[in-house]
Amino acid sequence: MERVTDVAAAVESTVESLLGVLENARLAQSPAVPPAQLRVLTIISRNEHVNMSRLAETLDVVPSSASRLCDRLEATGLLRRVPDPRDRREVRLLPTAAADRLLDELRERRREAFAEVLERMPPARRVELVRALTAFDAATEAHPTGDSKGLRTA
Questions:
Q1: How far lies 87's CA from each of 41, 59, 71, 93, in Å?
Q2: Overall fold of domain 34-143
Q3: Confidence of residue 69 (pLDDT cuts 50, 70, 90)
């Protein structure tokens, strides 16, 4: 069996290829949305009760930086700020219908881009890939600290 460090190097190299496929799909998007703004949209679309401080914490940025990102998204019609019904002093961040469509289109473009690459692989290797990725995902969930949150990104 290969050394774990050799496997880690192979995974790192492959991740660069995966990121290239994802980036090409993002660049094909019209209008192009910068990665940081896409990350904000992804975070707020996956979490029902996101306010500015929680977003800043998730992004690991100061609140003013998160606020500027939200200003840009709001100006382009991709984000809404609404009073939180549980605490009127808080502002909730919500994706607009346009943001939902944009994220759906991006997911579809990414899947198509991956499918294009996967078509060039023999079927048996695709099955092996799914097994390996499933095992890797399970290993991230079984992080020794019990906190897998830090191992996943938005």
A1: 22, 23, 22, 13
A2: Arc Repressor Mutant, subunit A (1.10.10)
A3: very high
Q: Which backbone phi and psi does 87 adopt, to 5 degrees? A: -155, 100
Which amino acid belongs to residue 30? S
pLDDT in tens, 94-148: 999 999 999 999 999 999 999 999 999 999 999 999 999 999 999 988 766 555 4
Strand-pairing partners, residue 83, are 91
Domain boundaries, the chain: 34-143
**What is the CA angle 74-77-81, rounded to 5?**
40
The pTM score is 0.77
d(CA 134, CA 139): 9
